[in-house]
Amino acid sequence: MPVAMVPRQLAKLGQLFKFIGEKPECRTCEFRNICVQNLRPGKFYKIIEVRDAVHECPAYGIEMKVVEVVEVDTPLVVEQKAAAGETVKATRISCTNTKCPYYGFCMNPEAEDGEKYEVVSVEKEIECPLNRKLFLVFARKKRFPF
After folding, report:
1. Which of 96, 123, 129, 136 is most open to solvent, judged by the fewest CB atoms within 10 Å of its CB?
2. pLDDT < 50: residue spans in the chain
């Protein structure tokens, strides 16, 4: 499995994150091979193992943990239960609860309203603090032949 490094507070089993890209300082960093080399900018990853190793990041000045990751499809929050293979329309779920662990998925900047996605898998029903019935799915943008 590919390894990476994430901030200590994010190093939890099942944690999802999007790799934005590396900073210029990363290119010459001694930890580059285990930190960012295995990640692709713009892709989402799920942490499947957290290792004991901790390193200080020279670029950010914070403690980073070594983790094993797998690349996953785009995480989306949907308001209706969906099954693998179904088509769903992406919508931003309006929310003001910035402390909710799903806030970033509900207010997902990746999901252009109305854009169609094919559900690859259903991760789980979300325990929404605002008592909404929501589901976290992994999906791929629908490609239409021309």
Report:
1. 96
2. 146
Residue the block writes with tokens 């990853």: 45
Q: What pairs with residue 107 in β-bridges?
A: none
Q: Do 11 and 61 share a structural domain?
A: yes
Could you tell me if 128 and 134 are in contact, meaning their C-beta atoms sit under 8 angstroms apart?
Answer: yes
Tokens read off for 85: 């293979």
Do 63 and 93 sit in the same domain of this protein? no
Residue 118 and residue 82 in contact, taking contact as beta carbons nearer than 8 Å: no
How much is the pTM? 0.82
Which of 55, 72, 89 is where one domain is finished? 72
SS3 string of 30-47? CCHHHHCCCCCCCCEEEE
Q: What's the pLDDT tens digit per position in 18-34?
A: 999 999 999 999 999 99
Q: What share of the chain is helix, strand, coil (3-state, %, to 5)?
A: 10, 40, 50
Q: Contact at 8 Å (CB) between 72 and 16?
A: yes
Q: Which of 72, 103, 124 is the last residue of a domain?
A: 72
